[in-house]
Amino acid sequence: MSCDTHHDHTHKHGPDCGHTQIEHDGHVDFLHDGHLHHPHQSHIDEHQIEVTDKNPDDCNHHNCAGHDADHVHGPDCGHEAVPHGEHTDYLVDGHLHHPHGDHCDNHGPVKVIG
């Protein structure tokens, strides 16, 4: 299996590094500036949450109590960006929100550690 390596990454990810930890595919990844990082041997792999039945990429007009109805997801919105399939979602109360027109779609749960 080849690695999608994040080059020139000097930060050392670990349990107390300050980044949100996500359980992903049997291991722990770290959310870091819109990337999902996995320490691997002497480098950092770039991961993404795969599109699955658990984490779909469909339109489902999700109404969530995790933010106001007029909240707009994007850089500096207060929610961490998470790579999901070929797009970016936002972590809100343990699940993935995908901004879609005038609403959010629920793209499924993720397990946040800690």
Automatic annotation (TrEMBL):
Domain of life of the native organism: Bacteria
Annotated spans, Disordered: 1-23
Protein name in the entry: Threonine dehydratase
Taxonomic placement: Bacteria, Pseudomonadati, Pseudomonadota, Gammaproteobacteria, Thiotrichales
